[in-house]
Design brief:
Length: 167
């Protein structure tokens, strides 16, 4: 039987515990997962692509079934390159569904055999988003418990490098 590959794509700027929860749940449903870091020239991220790749690789260094790659262009093309049968997405709320549904249906239009698998996060991480993590970081708050340790360390180092401005 051929292996079942899922793709989980995003900006991961930065990875937080909500992503991690979904990734670990998703691993229970597939043989291998490719984490696709979207390279978007139009956005000014907090962390550069290389730094985001490093963080993801560090967090999943003990998980041989996780591969970390970058991509640009269409998600369906990336999923095809990865040999994926499904794209994994998380639903925290109805607002997420409103955002996700048209995207998933459009992806299906472009790639009818590629499924989208929606998973619900654990209630203790349902409030997390990368933008909130960044806002808390910029205002000097604590993100302990919201992000994996390698991400927390880098946020802290970045804050110290910025001289506490968080910019
Ligand atoms: O970090 P996010 O915002 O959750 O990631 C969104 C992502 C990367 C899944 C979405 O922006 C995407 O699929 N981008 C690739 C471009 C694409 O395929 N666009 C057409 C969607 S119908």
């Amino acid at each position: 039987m051929s292996e079942r590959v899922f793709v989980f794509a995003g900006s991961f700027d930065p990875l937080h515990r909500g992503h991690d929860d979904l990734i670990r749940r998703g691993l229970g449903l597939c043989d291998r997962m490719v984490l696709g870091v979207l390279v978007n020239e139009n956005k000014k991220p907090l962390f550069g692509v290389e730094e985001r790749l490093e963080m993801l690789r560090e967090v999943y260094s003990d998980e041989s079934r996780v591969e970390v790659r970058t991509f640009s262009g269409l998600l369906v093309d990336f999923a095809r390159e990865c040999g994926a049968s499904a794209v994994l997405r998380g639903l925290r709320s109805g607002t997420d569904l409103d955002y996700e549904l048209p995207m998933s249906l459009m992806n299906r239009r472009m790639s009818p055999r590629l499924e989208t698998v929606f998973l619900l996060p654990s209630p203790d991480v349902v409030d997390l988003s990368s933008s909130l993590v960044k806002e808390i970081y910029r205002l000097g708050g604590s993100v302990d418990g919201a992000v994996p340790e390698p991400v927390r360390r880098r946020l802290q180092a970045r804050f110290q490098d910025d001289g506490g401005t968080g910019s």
